[in-house]
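Fold these two proteins, one after the other.
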Amino acid sequence: MTVKQAHIIVTGRVQMVGFRFTAVSIATEHGLVGWVRNTRGNDVEIVAEGPAEGIDAFIKWCWIGPAIALVEDVRVEWRKPTGKFTRFDVKY
């Protein structure tokens, strides 16, 4: 199994729409670990690590987000997996 890590920035109307908590659910469904948080710039920042197929599916979901979100862009930076995460959490 190929493990990947993605650092993701999601922009648009992505705060106050349940994005972080839905991201936890979707990431967990795909066997991913890492974290999600709001940024001061009104974006959502994510570090997701896990199976390549799960990362790819999660990134596709990020382009959609929860029903009331309006995603404008998803930027992905690929990083070397660290293996330090044990679950997917909301980071404050």
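Now the second one:
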Amino acid sequence: MIAAARGVLRGLVAVLCAAALGAAVPAAAQEGELDSMEQRVKPCVACHGDQGRASAAGFLPRIAGKPEGYLYNQLLNFREGRRRHDLMTYLVERQTDAYLLAMAAHFAAQHPPYPPPEVIERSDTLLQRGEQLVREGDAALEVPACTACHGTRMTGIAPAIPGLIGLPRDYLSAQLGAWRGQTRHAQAPDCMAQIARRLSLRDLEAVTAWLAAQPVPDNAQPQPALLTRLPMDCGGVPQVQP
């Protein structure tokens, strides 16, 4: 019942976003063809909210302030079929690399305030397991701590690692589930797919519940650069050289 209700909600959100987009999106926008960045981002903010701060619907993520390289990689993933979303594919399938990079840079520079954290009603045991996975990982499962890649404050690391703090639980659950079910992909090697498949459904619930319940730090901008090597190689993310 819950899954069905969420599916209906996602469908309704998609319909509302499509109505907001209308027929105003150019067939093949090129650099300089639109009058301003404000025009370019109108389709984006119709779904992702003003400045990309996210809407009230939990399945639409905040894109404001995410690292430019991460946003650019996701636009490429939608354009090249590694990620699936009809509206996103429609918007980017005929756009150039330079056009998508400019869009990514625009939203990376936006820093509107975050909403309060979600009120998550889960057992203490589940939330403790979520915190353990985020801060320590699980060596027996060969799962590194989330903080080892996404930063100690979970706000991401430039140029290409997103923050996880401040994202809705429904969105986090949907993305981890998509990786686990092999319907979301990233550039090879797809490290998040490997991690998601090593975790049980209960572990995924624990991680997403704990993350969504955390307050966002005052300075939520991504860490400026990696300081140590990542525990895994991830496509599209430059490693620190030994």
